[in-house]
Amino acid sequence: MNKIKKILSEYVDLNQQISCVTCYDSSFSKILSDSGIDIILVGDSLGMVIKGEANTHSVTMQEIIYHSKCVAKNKNSAILMADMPINSYVDEESAFKNSQEILKNNVDIVKLEYKDQHKIIIEKLISNNIPVCAHLGYLPQFFPEAKDIRIYGKSDNEKNKIFNQAKILDEIGVDVILLECVESDLAKEITNISKTPVIGIGSGEYCNGQVQVLYDIIGVSENPPKFSTNFLQGSNSVEEAIKKFKNYVSKLNTKNS
Ligand code: KIV
Fold first, then answer.
1. What is the CATH number of the domain that holds 181?
2. What is the DSSP string of 164-189?
3. How far is the CA of 44 from the centre of ligand 1 (A)?
C-alpha cells in the first residue's frame, strides 16, 4: 500500500472526514496547511480562477508544474494533489511520463478525469506505484460548457454508469475517488461500498470528505456554485474562514456515522 493510500484509509477507519481545498500559490498554501486542511489540490480550475478563461482547457503541464512548485513551498504536512491537465493522459505512455513530471515537484498524488478508456491508463500508473485520484461525475475537461454543469446520476442509465465506474476504480485500487456534482444518494451508495476514500464536491454530505475551490469559499468567485458557502462572511480573517470550512467538514463525520 502506498503512503498516501495508507494515510487516507486511516481517516476513513477512524471515521474522520477529509478536507480538501484548491490552491495555486504559496501564500494561500501556508494558510490552508496551517488551518489543518488535509489535501491541497492544484486544480486545473486555475484556468478559470487564475487565467480568467471560460474553462480548464487551456491549462498546460507547465502551468500545473509551476503552480505545484509554488504551493509545495509552504504546504507543511498537507497532502499535495495536482490535476493532470487535458491531453496529458491520452495513452499509457503520456500518462506515465506526465504524472512522473508532476510528482517530481513534491506532489504526492495526481488526479485525472475518468472515462472508461482510462482504466488501462490508471492500471499502468498504479502498477508503477503512482498515487491516483480518479474524478467522476461532472468532468470539466470533457464537458466544458456552463450548461454541462448539472447533477449527474439522476437517470437510471447515468446512475448505473457512474456506480460501475466507481466500482471498477475501487477494484483496481485508486487512492481516492472524487465525485463532482453526483446525485447525493448515489454518492452515499458509492461511499458505502468503496474501500477507497471518496471525497465529494456538490455531491451531498455523505462522502468520506469534501473538496471545494478556494475562491468559492472565501467569497472571491463572482458566480460561486450553489453548493459552496462563503465562510469568510462573519470571519475576521481568511485563516478563520478556512478553519470554519475544516470544522464544517469534520462535523459531517458525526452526521454520517
Ligand atoms: O480543478 C479543480 O478545482 C477541481 C475541483 C473542482 C475538484 O477539479
1. 3.20.20.60
2. HHHHHHHHHT-SEEEEESB-HHHHHH
3. 6
* Residue having the nearest C-alpha atom to atom 1 of ligand 1: 43
For the record, the C-alpha cell of 238 comes out as 481568511
Calculate how far, in angstroms, residue 76's C-alpha sits from the geometric centre of ligand 1. Answer: 21
Taking the centre of ligand 1 as the mean of its atom positions, its distance from the CA of residue 213, in whole angstroms, is: 7
10 assigned to active site: no
Phi, psi of 152 (to 5 degrees): -100, 140
Cβ(180)–Cβ(137) under 8 Å? Answer: yes
With cell 500559490, the residue in question is: 25
Mean pLDDT of the residues in the chain: 96
pLDDT band for position 16 (cuts 50, 70, 90): very high
Q: What percent of the chain has pLDDT over 70?
A: 98
pLDDT tens-digit readout, 71-114: 999 998 999 999 999 999 999 999 999 999 999 999 999 999 99
Which residues line ligand 1 at a C-beta cut-off of 6 Å? Answer: 22, 43-45, 83, 178, 180, 201, 211, 213
146/5: higher pLDDT: 5
Q: Which spans in 114-233 are helix H?
A: 119-127, 156-172, 184-193, 214-217
Tell the residue nearest (CA) to atom 8 of ligand 1: 43
Q: Which domain holds residue 61?
A: 3-256
pLDDT tens-digit series, residues 122-154: 999 999 999 999 999 999 999 878 788 999 999
* Best mutation site among 21, 24, 45, 212 for ligand 1 pocket (most ligand atoms within 8 Å of CB): 45
Q: Which residue has the cell 488501462?
A: 120
| Active-site pick, 180, 189, 205, 222 | 180
Q: How many domains does the chain have?
A: 1
